Amino acid sequence: MRKVSSKVVFRLAIAAATTVGFLIFVLMQGDMDEYLVHITSADPLYLVFGLLTAPISQLIRAARLSLLLNHRTTLPSKTLFRISAIHTAINSVMPARLGEAALPLMMKRECAVDLAHGAGILVTARIYDFLIVLILGGIGATTAYHQTLPGASWLGAGTAVAAAFTAALLPGLAHLTMTLLRRWFGHRRHFGLLERLARGILATTMPRDLLALIVMSLSIWLATFLGFWLTVHSLGIILDLQSILLAGAVVVLAASQPINGVASLGVFEFFWAATLVSFGVSWEIGVAAALVTHAINILGIAMTAAVAVVIPGARKHKEADQPIPDPDARKD
Question: pTM of the prediction?
């Protein structure tokens, strides 16, 4: 058996301690019986609709994966859906973001994509996830606090604008940077590794592809936030658009940190409940909404992954044994 490194053990221990600490703190702030009363009052119809947002989000993630591969893969969309769904499921339950490694590993196995190329695609997807969440959260803060906290409103607006400009300019800047680095350091031994890492972002330098990347990333998070709204609404909490955008952004950014607990349990609940309390919701209802929202989110992701595993035609195909052509290869 392979020995688990001490760094991994340490990160797992920190993640477990984070989950236990946050959960104890969250639950001890209110009455347990009241939590249960609110949880059991959830409208099942809204919960079912909330579950359905998970496969929608994964379908869009699979399309984005194809885009970042520069459409060169011969695998069917079912296989890309499988890779995306399983990666999301693993990453959503693994502590300390350890599940992120599943994407480049699965792409190497299923698509014969170089690990460095796969890691670059992962980084590109995460950068645009981060930027889109900042944009949505900034919009939410701008509209939610424009009367009560003008400073926070201006900060939200500035954040949204800065994130939007970054999303629009990043591929072009990456292309310019790689062109200059190729000219100056192209002869260096490890420059090829850097080029493979950069292929994910360089696949979107064309305006059409960049627009598709932004629209797909935006759609992914709008579907996710719609699921949040539906599960919160199931408990009778009526939130307007700006409130759900802000609350969703706060929770996603908090849960995306390297030390985020096991399956973000505890961290998700604390930030979700705290944000709802700032909108006038009681702590007990906020915690109940957080627990239900988190449970539906994890269940939807798990069910989507289970369907992706058994779906016909989503296994590895013979075409995957052939590496994806290298766009930077030059004839001697």
Answer: 0.86
